[in-house]
Amino acid sequence: MADQMYRRPVTFTPGDEPYLGRVSVFAFDKLIVACLEVSAEVAPQTHRIQRSVLQTAACQLIPQSISLALSIRELVRQGHLFGALVLMRSLAERTTILLYLQRNPQAIGIWERGWLHNERPSLANMLNFIGGTAFPGVGPEITRSLNSITHGDPKSGIWSLIPMDDGGLGHAVSKMLNNPDLCDKVCLEASTWLSVTMSMIHAVFPDLERTQDKPAQSSSTEENS
Q1: Number of C-beta neighbours around residue 52 at 10 A
Q2: What is the tally of helices (H) and strands (E) in the chain?
Q3: Ranges assigned E (strand) in the chain
Q4: How many Å apart are CA 64 and CA 4, to the nearest integer?
Q5: pLDDT tens-digit series, residues 176-206
Q6: Would you say the pTM of this structure is higher than 0.70?
Q7: Tell me: the pLDDT tens digits for 58-108?
Q8: Cβ atoms 124, 97 nearer than 8 A
Q9: What is the pLDDT of residue 10?
Q10: DSSP of 15-37, one letter per residue?
Q11: Would you tell me how many other CB atoms lie within 10 Å of the CB of residue 182?
Q12: Which of 29, 113, 172, 209 has its CA 20 to 30 A from that of 15?
């Protein structure tokens, strides 16, 4: 095993994080800000409406998804890329559940009954349903890597490799500070799932007004030209 944590500061800040300046990191940051802004505006209004079961599920799953995205971002900042990858399935699953329920209203009852293990569809099956005939069998293609990383099978080992001082390879126990390709993978995948989460805010709560959508109101005392 190898550990690089003592070669650089133990805790990074936004001004000195190891992957600062990466396009993927910048794009992820911009999406996080946009998603937080929309959530901050819509969330208070969800307490003042009569919610459907789908909307109630969204009130749980959307905040959890955003929280996981923020956790992934902080792990990237600290160079814990493998840990960020492990969280990816949790982010993907919550995002997919909500999209699946929105696309398949017949499944709402499963959520109401507690989303029990012996009733709920697998992540791959939900993705297959969402993909439909346009992307047949897409579920296993997406989940294969997510499951491998989460469950720790031999193939997951490739994601924790770092170069050793002797020219060989070892498995990191902490920060991974020199793997920009892996950083890009984490940020782009997380951005993909977070963008779906953001779209679901609009899809599940279409009737909640947002100030950025309101046209500017003209003054009643405006003089005619």
Answers
A1: 12
A2: 7, 2
A3: 161-163, 169-171
A4: 31
A5: 999 999 999 999 999 999 999 999 999 999 9
A6: yes
A7: 999 999 999 999 999 999 999 999 999 999 999 999 999 999 999 999 999
A8: no
A9: 84
A10: TT-TTTT-HHHHHHHHHHHHHHH
A11: 21
A12: 172
Q: Single out the residue of 68, 77, 65 nearest to residue 175, CA to CA.
A: 77
Token pair in block for residue 104: 């398949």
Tell which residue, 110, 125, 11, has the closest CA to residue 57. 110
Structure tokens at 5: 């944590």
CB 187 within 8 Å of CB 25:
yes
Contact (Cβ atoms closer than 8 angstroms) between residue 83 and residue 75: yes
Residues in a beta bridge with 2: 172
HSE-up of residue 89 (Cα within 13 Å, Cβ side): 19
Say what the pLDDT of residue 220 is: 41
Cα separations (Å) of 102 from 46, 49, 59, 111, 203? 17, 18, 13, 12, 8
Contact 37, 194 (CB under 8 A): no
Taking all residues of the chain, what is their mean pLDDT, rounded to a whole number? 91
